[in-house]
Amino acid sequence: MKNFFHALVAVLAGNAAYFLLMPHLPQPLRHVPFRTDVGLAVDAAFCLAALGLVKWVSSWNRESKLPR
């Protein structure tokens, strides 16, 4: 269940970041709906980066709770 929550947060955060930044991206990096294009890969990269960030924060938070 934890992995599902991490993935959900990553997809929502990655897509939000991509769609907020999309107007500022060069035209070839913008996704066109219902097409497979480079913009779709850029969107996936944003989601992957968000997943890495979520996993890093989760592991950092877990390590800080360990007794010393």
List strands and helices in order, with pairings.
Blueprint: H1 2-21, H2 38-64
Helix pairs in contact: 1-2
Task: Please explain how this structure is put together.
This protein has 68 residues and is mainly α. It has one domain (11-26, 35-68). It has two helices and no strands.
Label the overall shape.
elongated
Radius of gyration: 15 Å
Total helical segments: 2
State mean pLDDT (0 to 100 scale).
92
Main structural class? mainly alpha
What proportion strand?
under 5%
For the sheet with most strands, the description reads: none
* Low-pLDDT residue intervals, each spanning 5 or more residues: none
Total tally of structural domains: 1
Distance between the termini: 28 Å
Determine the fraction of residues in helical runs and give it as a percent range: 55-70%
Number of strands: 0
- H/E series, N to C? HH
